[in-house]
Amino acid sequence: MYFFRRRFVQYLLLIAPLAFLAASAPQKSTPTTTTEVGKYSIVDTGQERFFNNQSVIKAPTHNNAFYGQDAHHQGHQPAYTNNGDGTITDQVTGLVWQQAYEVTTYEKALKKLRNFELAGHADWRLPTIKELYSLILFSGKDVSGKNMSRVPASGVPFIDTEHFDFDYGSNGQRIIDVQLLSSTIYKGTTMGGQRTVFGVNVADGRIKGYPINDPRTRSGKKYTVRFVRGNTAYGKNNFKANNDGTISDQATGLMWDQTDSKKGMDWEAALAWVQQKNDNNYLGHNDWRLPNAKELQSIVDYSRSPQQTNSPAIDPLFNITAIKDEGRSTNYPFFWSSTTHENMRGGGSAVYVCFGEALGYFGPPHSFRKTLMDVHGAGAQRSDPKTGNAANWPQGHGPQGDVIRINNFVRLVRDI
């Protein structure tokens, strides 16, 4: 027995210095992984600059205008690993991505997956719209403009080009034609009856629904396609009503106000409204914020739509205000995010997410008559001017005539 006690003491004397050195050595921070924080960890938008209604500004302080915008809250920062085999691992989401892309149609992409292998794996899939949106970075700058054949020198893609292959105009004639294809089919139709699939445009920074068949050629529309594998739980919410006016998503670690602002307001007013709620210790908390673009998109329910389920694209646990849209039909609001959507003219627009139809004034090819219709689907992410008069855009804005509202609704969020 004495022999064993002596050897044990010798062992403790041996490891004690090593333990001391380990404890006193500088500790490296490691990227937060999906196994540590949940199976639906939202990657930060990457927006680090602050904006007023038009320009970059210094960081606003508490109780001042424009406080509480995206850059004030730094979430799980993007962290990628190049595996050296044509794949990229996202250390936050646990997803493994194809580094390269190809240009093909929705149907051909599904056909290719039947026999597709890469890096020794055959379980690749088309990403869902929530998986795909994890890649977007709002450090990008929208290159849309009058000349859609030349990339402006100040244009910045909405994706990490150090890790992922990227080319402007990869799947079309315009520089903004970089629509990454998802597997998420819209529960409804767009463009006057077209079967629609969602995609993320990493040249102009938007989610839109696109007709699976090009209305002009009636053949399969071509997309930029990048496959994914791993973490099949990503993008799946786990909502719990707390019976106190809040809803917790145990998948993302976010707590949401069960109801909304019940009124629309411009972007600056939305930020101020959140500050007021915190000053009043709303629902027992004073750390509410306007959600960033990716947090807000995380609560979209893409299995729902006004067309097919007669409901907004959100879980029924949430209360949402019904509105009369531009055509005087019952619909559901656009909701502001805290994220600025920067473009060639500056930071005058902010991101919103459609929980009702993504309406636009649109006419068929070669038609001079524009009709109000769902052009991109409930669950689309677009942008509005931060301030101004919506009446100045009676036919909307952009190629699809996106309706301009400016006075959008607000839903509060905080970390659990």
Could you characterize what this model shows?
The chain has 416 residues and is an alpha+beta fold. The chain contains 6 helices and 22 strands. The chain has helices at 2-24, 34-37, 106-113, 129-133, 267-279, 293-297, and strands at 50-51, 56-57, 80-82, 87-90, 96-98, 102-105, 179-190, 194-201, 206-211, 222-225, 228-229, 239-241, 246-249, 254-257, 323-324, 330-331, 334-340, 349-354, 359-362, 371-374, 381-385, 413-415. The protein has a 4-stranded antiparallel sheet with strand order 3-4-5-11, with no helix packed on it. Strands 12-13-14-22 form a 4-stranded antiparallel sheet, with no helix packed on it. Residues 1-37 have low confidence and may be disordered.
Low-confidence stretches: 1-37
Tally of strands: 22
Order of helices and strands: HHEEEEEEHHEEEEEEEEHHEEEEEEEE
Strand order of the largest sheet: 3-4-5-11
Separate helix tally = 6
If you compute it from the alpha carbons, what radius of gyration comes out, rounded to the nearest whole angstrom?
23 Å
Q: Which helices and strands, and how do they pair?
A:
Layout lengths: L1 H23 L9 H4 L12 E2 L4 E2 L22 E3 L4 E4 L5 E3 L3 E4 H8 L15 H5 L45 E12 L3 E8 L4 E6 L10 E4 L2 E2 L9 E3 L4 E4 L4 E4 L9 H13 L13 H5 L25 E2 L5 E2 L2 E7 L8 E6 L4 E4 L8 E4 L6 E5 L27 E3 L1
Task: Note the main attributes of this structure.
416 residues; 22 strands; disordered N terminus; alpha+beta; 4-stranded antiparallel beta sheet; 6 helices; globular; 23% strand
